[in-house]
Every structure is written in structure tokens, then in C-alpha cells.
Write a structure and sequence with these properties.
Structural class of chain A: mainly alpha
Largest sheet of chain A: none
Strand order of the largest sheet of chain B: 1-2
Distance between the termini of chain B: 30 Å
Number of strands of chain A: 0
Radius of gyration of chain A: 25 Å
CATH topology of the largest domain in chain A: MetI-like fold
Number of helices of chain B: 13
CATH architecture of chain B: Orthogonal Bundle
CATH architecture of the largest domain in chain A: Orthogonal Bundle
Number of domains of chain B: 1
Order of helices and strands of chain B: HEEHHHHHHHHHHHH
CATH superfamily of chain B: MetI-like
Radius of gyration of chain B: 24 Å
Shape of chain B: globular
Structural class of chain B: mainly alpha
Oligomer: heterodimer
Distance between the termini of chain A: 57 Å
Number of domains of chain A: 2
Helix content of chain A: over 70%
CATH class of chain B: Mainly Alpha
Order of helices and strands of chain A: HHHHHHHHHHHHH
Number of helices of chain A: 13
Chain lengths: 284, 295
């Protein structure tokens, strides 16, 4: 009797220990984010005089107000939004169509084409930047929206096609065959039958691409050099002045504003996002 | 099936646009890079064919290449520790608690969706020395000397810090993967083992881990591949510094190509990275197909 009792207590202690470890780790994981949101309310003086773990002395909204009204941030938000939407649209259309062809159409090289696309998951993006830059400046695509959008669509295809072909594998062939017998053309079949059935995968693809594209910095950084075309990720660095002087309050206000959209998407639609990311488990 | 599905024009309409765009933007540049790695070219003027001289210079004369190469290896090793090791440890801890699994999982996943630029800004501040950042401030309670640790500007520390920040950002993905793998271990196996009197730790080591070892292996190769082309965090957090002590192959190549205008030379570094990544891709496919066979 006694041994069971001690065993239970032992188990309980172990459980509490695991729980404490996890809570500690969770606090470490979330702290940088909390710090960011708190620091956005701090005045310059607080950054200089008070220890960093102090809470902001008051809700000092000025950082946000100045960032929104006096900096380029609204412009960057617009740019990011345009680029993200265009990339989403391009990736979803091209990826669903190509995946449909690979999975459901009948030709000899289906699997080879799939492998060719999947190789793209393993290719270092940076190795393509220089040739792309030269190519784009040759056809005057640098410093345009298209110059940032087109490569992101292309680099988004491998992961999207990977996820989408997996989804189409489970799309019943009977439905497709039945609609062909009813006299559908391939285009009708795709847009009227297949696309309405692919809502889930389209949502996943869109969410993933939105997060990757919103967070991306290498394409706008390399292919644009005018402020007019910059995106929110590059805007974060606007308040870092010369000689290492940084306006931390405004920087953190900007960081907070730029991560709020992805955080909102994550909180409301996280299930679809996590499913896609962990199945791909590959960098954007 | 139906002739409709074999018509060349149908196949071409559906597959053509994606295939064309992908080939032009992703594959042509790779071939371009390999081709130009045999030339001396500064972008302007004529290209001069110099055979493998770029590679010879890279491997024998460039003082920075081998340090950068070995740093990339160290970085990769650290990534495997943080992402695969850390992710697996988190997943195991999560599986072992009864309450709060989903909320904790959600918290650990948040860094994944934050941009590297934002993460680097935040960590730059948390790890700063003047004014003293929170990390040094807290360490200062233990020993006041710790307040002066220059995390990002001390040669050996900066690489470790980059690796930790990258680990922090991506660990969540692997935690989710290993978590769903661990809960997919059949109940009968675990129950049978418990009836036979194994402790939960023994059960983990001898049943659960072996059961998911292919998933662990496949993801290790993925992390290997991802780490060999890591770029963002060192580029943004320390810009490879101090000196080149936290430089990785990808950022080294980027700087050679874009800042020093050595297009041919930069391409030869790109070719080295592509070769490493492709051999890892082949390895991954081997692991992946053997995984499918074993199920």
C-alpha cells in the first residue's frame, strides 16, 4: 500500500517538474514578443535610464502615432499588401493548376515533373539572386513591383505544389470521371468541380504564402533600392540612424505593427497554417 | 481513363505556366551560376574563361573560405542540436503532460511566424551591452562582470548567438512534427509495454523513439539542408561579424557577388553551396523512400 502511495507522489512530483520546465520555456519563448509590445510604449528617456525589465511608466502612444503619421510605414504597409496579395494569387492559381495536371492528368512524366518541382525545396535561394538581378535589370524589372512578385511566386511553387498534389491524391477520381462523361471540358472541370472542392488546401496555401511573403526581406532588399517600393520588413530598420543611434521606441512600435497581421492570422486560422508548415517543414 | 486527360493541349495549359516560370526563375539561374563560375567577370566588360581557377583560388588562396566553411558546419551542427534535439525534447515534454498542451504548443510556435528582421531587431536589443539589455541585466544579478558580455561582437560567441536565435525561430516547426509523430505511436504498443512493467522513460527510449526514427532522420536531413543555406539571421543580427567570424557560406557568397562585384568568383561559391544542397537533397530522397518502404 505504502509503495503505491510513494509511487503516486513520485509521479506527481515528476509531473509538476515537467510542467514547470515547460512553463519556464514558454515564458522564454514568448518574452521577446511581450517585451516588444511593452517597449513600444516606452519613451526615449525610459530606454536610457531604467532597466529593460521595467514596465513602461505610462501608456505612451506617441511612438505609434509618430510612426503611423510621420514615417513611411503606411506606404510600406501598402507595398507589402500589394506584393503579398499578388504573390498569393499567382501561387494559388499556378500551383493548383500544375498539381491538378501532375496528379490527375495522364502523361508519361508526371512523377518526374513532381520531383523537378520538389528539388526547388532544396535550392538555396541566395544562389539565384545574382543571375536574377542581372536578368531583371536587363529587362527593366528591378525597382518594380513585378520584380519582387515574380521570383516570390516561382520560389513559392515547390512547397505549394508539394502540399497540393498530396491533397489532390485524395480527390475521388469518380467525381472527375462522372463530370467528364456529363460533357465537361477540362477547364470547366477544373474551375467548376476541382477548385470548389479544394477550399481547404487553397486556404492553407494562401496563409503560408502570406506569412512567408509578409516576412520576406531578401527579394525587396535585393531587387529594389527606392523607398517607394520597400516593404514592412525593411521599414523596421528605418529608425536605425547613423553611428548606431537607434530610436528604439519607434523601432519597437514598427515591429509591433508589422507582426500584428501575422499574429492575427495565426490566432484565427493557425490550424491550417501549422498543418501546412509542418507538412512541408521547409523554409519559405 | 478518358482521352480528355491525355490531350497534349490540356496538359500544356495546366502545367505550362508553372513549369515555365519555375524553370526560368529557379533553374536557369542555377545553371547560369555554374556556367559563370568558370569565368572572370565583374559584370561590366568582357567575360574571360579561366577554367577552374576560381575554385582553385577559393580552396587554396582565399583566407576567408575555409573559416567560413567550417563555421557553416558548426552552425549546422548547432541547428541540429537546437531544432531536432530541442524540438524533440519539447515534443516529448508536451506529450507527457495532461493539461495545457495546445496552449503551450501555440506559444512555442509563435516565433515561427515572426519575420527574421523583427526577430533580429528584438534580439539585438535583448542582448545589447550599451544600454545594458535584459539578458545581461539578469545575468548581472549573478555576477556583475556578466553585465559586460558582448554577445554579438565577441568572435566565438556571435556565431553561437546566431545559431541560438535561428533555433529559437524554427524550433516550433520541428516540435509540431515530432509531437504529431509521437502521438501517432499506436496505443497497443505502449500499453503492452506498460503491462510488461517498463517505466515511461524506458518506453520512450525503446519503443516510441525507434518507432519514429525515420521521421527524425528525414527531418535531420532537412535541417542539414536548411542550415547549409542559412542566410537571414547572421546577415541581419551580426552581419557576419565581427570580421567574418559569424559569416556563413550563403552570406559570404551574397557579399562577394553584390558588394565586391566579383560575379564569376561569387558564382563559384554559389556552385559549392548548390552542390552541397543537391547531394543532401538526394540523401533526403533516399531516406524518404526508405521510410515509405518501411511503413
Amino acid at each position: 500500500m505504502k509503495s503505491i502511495h510513494t509511487k503516486l507522489r513520485h509521479l506527481n512530483l515528476l509531473c509538476i517538474f515537467k510542467f514547470i520546465v515547460l512553463i519556464t520555456l514558454a515564458v522564454i519563448a514568448i518574452y521577446p514578443l511581450i517585451y516588444t509590445f511593452l517597449a513600444a510604449f516606452k519613451t526615449l528617456e525610459e530606454f536610457q535610464t531604467l532597466p529593460p525589465y521595467y514596465l513602461p511608466q505610462s501608456l505612451y502612444w506617441n511612438n505609434f502615432i509618430e510612426v503611423v503619421t510621420k514615417s513611411n510605414l503606411p506606404l510600406y504597409f501598402g507595398n507589402s499588401l500589394i506584393i503579398t496579395l499578388a504573390v498569393d494569387l499567382g501561387v494559388v492559381i499556378l500551383a493548383t493548376m500544375a498539381s491538378f495536371a501532375i496528379e490527375k492528368l495522364d502523361f508519361r512524366y508526371n512523377q518526374h515533373i513532381l520531383i523537378y518541382f520538389l528539388l526547388g525545396l532544396m535550392i538555396p535561394i541566395q544562389c539565384c539572386l545574382l543571375p536574377l538581378y542581372l536578368m531583371f535589370s536587363g529587362i527593366h524589372l528591378t525597382n518594380t513591383y513585378s520584380g519582387v512578385i515574380i521570383p516570390q511566386i516561382a520560389f513559392g511553387l515547390p512547397l505549394s505544389i508539394f502540399l497540393c498534389t498530396k491533397f489532390y491524391k485524395f480527390l475521388p477520381n469518380e467525381i472527375i470521371e462522372a463530370s467528364v462523361i456529363d460533357g465537361c471540358t477540362a477547364r470547366q472541370l477544373f474551375f467548376k468541380i476541382v477548385v470548389p472542392m479544394s477550399q481547404n488546401i487553397i486556404l492553407t496555401l494562401t496563409l503560408l504564402r502570406t506569412v512567408f511573403c509578409w516576412n520576406d526581406f531578401i527579394f525587396p532588399y535585393t531587387f529594389t533600392n527606392s523607398k517607394r517600393l520597400q516593404t514592412v520588413t525593411l521599414g523596421i530598420q528605418d529608425f536605425i540612424g547613423a553611428y548606431g543611434y537607434t530610436d528604439w521606441g519607434k523601432t519597437f512600435a514598427t515591429v509591433s505593427l508589422t507582426i500584428i497581421p501575422t499574429l492575427l492570422l495565426y490566432f484565427f486560422l493557425g490550424k491550417y497554417m501549422v498543418a501546412g508548415m509542418s507538412e512541408g517543414s521547409i523554409k519559405g | 481513363m478518358n482521352s480528355l486527360f491525355r490531350k497534349k493541349s490540356t496538359i500544356f495549359t495546366f502545367l505550362g505556366p508553372a513549369l515555365l516560370l519555375y524553370s526560368l526563375v529557379v533553374f536557369v539561374p542555377i545553371i547560369w551560376s555554374v556556367y559563370h563560375s568558370f569565368y572572370r567577370w565583374s559584370g561590366l566588360g568582357t567575360k574571360e574563361y579561366i577554367g577552374v581557377k576560381n575554385f582553385i583560388q577559393l580552396f587554396t588562396a582565399d583566407r576567408n573560405f575555409w573559416p567560413v566553411f567550417s563555421q557553416t558546419f558548426i552552425y549546422t551542427g548547432l541547428q541540429i542540436t537546437f531544432q531536432v534535439g530541442g524540438g524533440l525534447a519539447l515534443a516529448i515534454l508536451l506529450v507527457n503532460i495532461q493539461k495545457g498542451r495546445s496552449i503551450l504548443q501555440a506559444i512555442f510556435y509563435i516565433p515561427v511566424i515572426i519575420s527574421s528582421v523583427a526577430i533580429c531587431q528584438i534580439f539585438g536589443k535583448l542582448l545589447s551591452v550599451s544600454p545594458v539589455g535584459i539578458v545581461n541585466e539578469l545575468l548581472g544579478f549573478i555576477n556583475s562582470d556578466f553585465r559586460q558580455i558582448q554577445w554579438l561582437t565577441t568572435p566565438k560567441l556571435s556565431l553561437l548567438m546566431c545559431a541560438m536565435v535561428e533555433g529559437y525561430k524554427t524550433m516550433g516547426i520541428y516540435m509540431v512534427i515530432f509531437y504529431s509523430a509521437l502521438i501517432s505511436v499506436p496505443h497497443e504498443l505502449v500499453e503492452a509495454a506498460i503491462i510488461d512493467g517498463t517505466t515511461s522513460f524506458q518506453c520512450l527510449i525503446h519503443i516510441k523513439i525507434p518507432y519514429i526514427q525515420h521521421i527524425i532522420l528525414a527531418n535531420t536531413v532537412l535541417v542539414l539542408n536548411n542550415s547549409f543555406r542559412s542566410f537571414d539571421i547572421p546577415f541581419l543580427l551580426t552581419s557576419g561579424g565581427p570580421g567574418t567570424t559569424s559569416e556563413l557560406l550563403a552570406s559570404f557568397m551574397y557579399k562577394k557577388s553584390f558588394s565586391s562585384m566579383q560575379y564569376g568568383y561569387g558564382s563559384s561559391i554559389a556552385t559549392v553551396i548548390v552542390l552541397i544542397c543537391f547531394s543532401l537533397a538526394v540523401l533526403y530522397m533516399k531516406v524518404f523512400t526508405s521510410e515509405e518502404n518501411s511503413w
